[in-house]
Amino acid sequence: MIPKAVVAEYVKNNLNVLGVTNKMPSSGSWKHLQTEMITPQELKGEGVGIICGKISGNLEVLDIDLKYDISGTLYNRLKQKINDVNSELIKSLMIIQTPSGGYHWLYRCPSGIEGSLKLAERDATEDERGDQETVKVLIETRGEASYIASLPHDGYNVKQGRFSQIPSISAEDRKLIFSSSRELDERIKEFKIPTDSLKNTFNIHDKDSTRLTTWDDYDERGSIPDDLAKAGWIRVREDSERIYYKRAGKTDAKSSGNYWKTGNFFKSFSTSTVLEAGKGYKPFALYYMLLHNEDATAAARQLYGEGFGDRLDNKKESILEYAEEKYGDKEESKTVDEYSISKYLSNYENDYAYLQSVRDGNVEKGLSTGSDLIDKHFLFKKGSFIISIGHTSVGKTLSALFLTVLSALKHDWKIIVLGMENSSGMLKRQILELYLQKPLTQTTAEEFSEGNKWLNMHYVFIAARGGHVRTITDAIKLCYKMLDEDHYDMIVLDPYSGFDSNRKGGESEHEANKRNCGDLLNFSTKTNCVVLLSLHTNSSARREIDPNTGNLRPPRMSDVDGGGLFSNRCDTAICFHRLINAEDPLERITTSMYVEKERHLESGGSLTSRENPIQIQFRDSRFYVNGYEDVVYNIKNKHKEKFRDLKTNEVIEFEDVPF
After folding, report:
1. In sequence order, what are the residues at sequence separation of 6 or more whose Cβ sits closer than 8 angstroms to the Cβ of residue 354?
2. 49 C-beta neighbours (distance < 10 Å), count
3. Euclidean distance between CA atoms 178 and 277, whole angstroms
4. Domain 372-653, what fold?
5. pLDDT of residue 659
6. Longest dimension (CA), the chain
7. Is 444 exposed, middle or buried (CB count within 10 Å of its CB: 0-12, 13-18, 19+)?
8. Is the separation of the CB atoms in 281 and 267 below 8 Å?
9. Between the N and C ends of the chain, which has fewer C-beta atoms within 10 Å?
10. So what's the pLDDT on residue 550?
11. How deeply is 168 buried, as exposed, middle or buried, from its count of CB atoms within 10 A (0-12, 13-18, 19+)?
12. How far apart are CA 513 and CA 533, in angstroms?
């Protein structure tokens, strides 16, 4: 039993605890203790478990497990790497030796911590593999929702510091501990490139398996040292196995990553780069992350133009050929014997790669919007069919255009826009003002010129209102043709009700809508393009008043003509809502963004609750997420050591901004 007085001392020092036996909770579930401080009391167990995370003042523990250290030098190497940069940091920490001979380093980080992280591992030896273990963890953190066994447990000895004097360290010092630990990682966890997406773009099928792809060729012939130099990384030293580099920009670290010569991988230790710390990057992955703004498709196209990969002169079926076959009714004239069965089977290699990624826990994630607040619920996912729903005049078109601007700024996307209600001039104005973050009437000649140049690089507008596009089928056929001639990443169709009905034969409106949804879903899959379709709510939804606000209630994804048809077929459903008649002027300019459906949650995103949607506030030609995050500004100024304070809206400078 753990005496009440001991528990009281821990609580007095802002450390939440539980009783443990053999390092396991002695009293079952302890989840409530992650958010509720324990009342001093006698605890069952042979020792105390100290709970990490916010409940204990952002306590984090570095767990150094020396029983798996074959070299016998791990601890000294770790201390040396840290001391080379900050000789006082380790001296400030509380250090406890564990029964196995390892160490716990205790510290708090007021700027925040996350869950537990594995920082350094090694492959198991042959003898260890006999116990079904393939990996041994050398260094890891204990963070949010975790705990460590500690005193008064047999075998734990305080080597430095006191529980009443656990230090608070800066985010920079914490990153130093992390990067130094990652330098000791002996395993290479390869960063996965979006192979399926690239194969789709270049029309590479299983039957082309002998063809040397652009990315595989670059992995064989590309030069990691050359690309690092182009990206501004500085070579600092070299040994027989590795070349060490410092990242571009200001850093006190002696090295930020290393190039493993034999394996032809680069691994970054720093979290202040676009590279994922601890992952191994082959030449193509490194090339597109550092030199092509994280855009694998653009990088592959560039390298293909430079002669990498087998030529694609004999590609089997372009998206245009697919479209002509689909809409030309050629299949109907074929006999059974003329069908090629292999053409209709799913891609075994792609399916297997997906299943393997699920098993390994590394399913390819969607692309960031540039806002952590939005990314929690919504990410850009190539080949997805998105519907956006809203009542009339709530600003769903402007909100949708805001998302397209983020995709163009963050990922250099090219976008086709078909506006069936708003003129192309009006749509261009809205996009330009979002990009320039001011009304056009307030722009200088230079800003106006630069904005139009950017607009023309990233957007193409179809003369839809009053033009030749009448139906969804017309739009799809045209887009297939455009994608055969150039690369695009997103198609915006605004709104669905602006297109003429294209019922065939005796089709009902419901059947025609179902066919159109199927065609749009096929289009997004075949082209790997995002399709963003805007939908008005139906008349019954526009009559429902929210009794709490006296305004129209926020729409649901089924509040469109056709009911659940569109939401059933789409990959992602977003509802936009704004209280346009609210008394509070701030409410009148705030749009709620509800993510009501996300088909592929394993690749990121989550549904918003009805009570807590994403809030995007539009004022002074800027959208502020949750009222304060200016995402467009932050993306445009990411490369500068200058940032906007999200609370005061003032521009401030830092010597070194941690990403």
Report:
1. 196, 363
2. 26
3. 9
4. Rossmann fold (3.40.50)
5. 24
6. 87
7. exposed
8. yes
9. C
10. 79
11. middle
12. 13
Q: Which has the closest alpha carbon to 203: 312, 342, 364?
A: 312
Q: Are 451 and 443 in contact (CB under 8 A)?
A: yes
Distance CA 282, CA 298 (A): 17
For residue 160, what are its two tokens?
């430095």
Helix and strand element counts for the chain (H, E): 21, 27
User: How many Cα atoms are found within 13 Å in the side-chain-facing hemisphere of 344?
Assistant: 5
Helix (H, G, I), strand (E, B) or coil at 553: coil
Q: Please give the Cα distance from 450 to 208 (Å, whole number).
A: 43
Q: Domain 4-182 falls in which CATH fold? A: Prim-pol fold (3.30.2250)
For tokens 């075949």, name the residue. 526
Residues of the chain with CATH 3.40.50.300: 372-653
| Cα–Cα dist 304/318, whole Å | 17
Question: In terms of Cα–Cα distance, which of 650, 645, 636 is closest to 437?
Answer: 636
Alpha carbons 126 and 286: distance in angstroms, whole number = 32
Q: How many CB atoms lie within 10 A of CB 195?
A: 17
Instruction: Please write the tens of the pLDDT for every residue from 389-421.
Output: 999 888 899 999 999 999 999 999 999 999 988
**Contact call for residues 144 and 113 (beta carbons, < 8 A):** yes
Position 89 scores a pLDDT of 96
Supply the pLDDT for residue 322: 62
Two structure tokens written together for 319: 């998206």
CA angle, residues 91, 97, 103, in degrees to nearest 5: 70
Alpha helix positions (H), 394-540: 396-411, 424-436, 445-458, 472-485, 509-527
Structure tokens at 390: 């809203």
Q: Distance of alpha carbon 201 from its chain centroid, rounded? A: 21
3-state DSSP call for residue 280? strand
Can you give the pLDDT at residue 313?
53
For 223, list phi and psi in degrees, rounded to 5: -115, 110
> Residue 450: phi, psi to the nearest 5?
-65, -40
| Token reading at 461 | 């507008």
State the residue for tokens 């006296």: 550
- Tell me how far apart the alpha carbons of residues 507 and 254 are, in angstroms, rounded to a whole number: 70
| CA-to-CA separations, 186 to 72, 120, 121, 280, in angstroms, rounded | 14, 7, 6, 11
Q: What angle do CA 516, 568, 540 make, to 5 degrees?
A: 90
| C-beta of residue 514 within 8 angstroms of C-beta of residue 476 | no
Would you say 395 and 578 are in contact if contact means Cβ atoms under 8 Å apart?
Answer: yes
Range list for CATH 3.30.2250 in the chain? 4-182
Q: Are 38 and 16 in contact (CB under 8 A)?
A: yes
What type of residue is 73? T
Rounded to whole angstroms, what are the CA distances from 235 to 242, 262, 453, 497, 648?
A: 11, 18, 37, 58, 39
pLDDT in the model for residue 479:
92
Q: What does the alpha-carbon distance between residue 42 and residue 137 come to, in Å, rounded to a whole number?
A: 34
Compute how many other C-beta atoms are within 10 angstroms of the C-beta atom of residue 235: 14
Question: Is the omega angle on the peptide bond into residue 152 within 30 degrees of 0, that is, cis?
Answer: yes
Confidence (pLDDT) at 656: 35
Compute and round to an integer the Cα radius of gyration of the chain. 28
Instruction: Give the dihedral of Cα atoms 444, 450, 453, 454; nearest 10 deg.
Output: -120
Contact predicate 121/186, CB 8 Å: yes
* Degrees, nearest 5: CA angle 22-99-41: 50
- pLDDT for 505: 79
Which residues have C-beta within 8 Å of that of residue 611, sequence separation ≥ 6? Answer: none
State both tokens at 41: 């009391």
